[in-house]
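Our preliminary data section would be incomplete without showing what the modeling component actually yields. Below, a chain of 203 amino acids is followed by its predicted structure, encoded as C-alpha cells that our downstream tools consume directly.
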Amino acid sequence: MNLSQLDYQWFQTINHFAQRFPALNPLMAFCAVNLDYLFYLGVIIYWFIRTPENRRMVINSLLSAAAALGTNGIIGSIYHRDRPFLAHHVIQLVEHDASASFPSNHAAAAFAVAASIWLWRRKDGWVWFLLAAIIGFSRIWSGIHYPSDIVGGASFGVLIAVVIGKRMRWQGLKLLSEFLIRIYESIENKVWKPKQLTKDTTG
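Predicted structure:
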C-alpha cells in the first residue's frame, strides 16, 4: 500500500465517524469552521495583557501565521490537489469551495500560533496545540481535508514558527519587533491616557 492509498484509508476511517457518531457532527462542523476564531481572540487577549514578553509572543505568532499562509499559497499554486469531496464520495458536513486541499491553511495557521505560544509559554502552548489538533481532526471528519493535508499544514506552521521564534532573538528582528511595539504603545498611550482636567479659573 502506497502513501496515497494509506492517506485515503485514514481519511475514510475518520470521515466515517460522521456516520457512526452523528450526534457529534454539529460539534465537529463547528470546530472545522469556527474554532480558529478562538486563536484570534487568544492573540488579542495576550496582546492586551500588557507585558513585553506577551507582545513579543504575539508578534511571533502573527509573523508565523502570515508566513505559513503565504507558504501554503505558493505550494497550492504549484501543486493543486483536489479536495476529498471532489475526488471521492464523502460525508461532507460543511460547504467549501474547490480550492487546493494541500496543505491545510487552517492547520498551518493554528499550529503556527500554537507553536509560537509554546516557545514563550510552555504550559499555554500545549493547550493551543490541542485546540489546533481538534481543528485539523474536525476538518477531516467534515470531509474537506485528507490527513496528509493537515499533517503538511501543521508541519509547515510549526517549522516556520520555530524559525521565526529563534530569529526573534536575532538582533535585527528583535529591534524590528521592539520598534513595532513602541509605535503601538505610543499610540495606545495617547488614545487611552486620561485627559487632565483643566482648572476652572472663572469662579
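Residues 52-78 form the longest helix (27 residues). The radius of gyration is 21 Å. Preliminary results of this kind motivate Aim 1 of the renewal.
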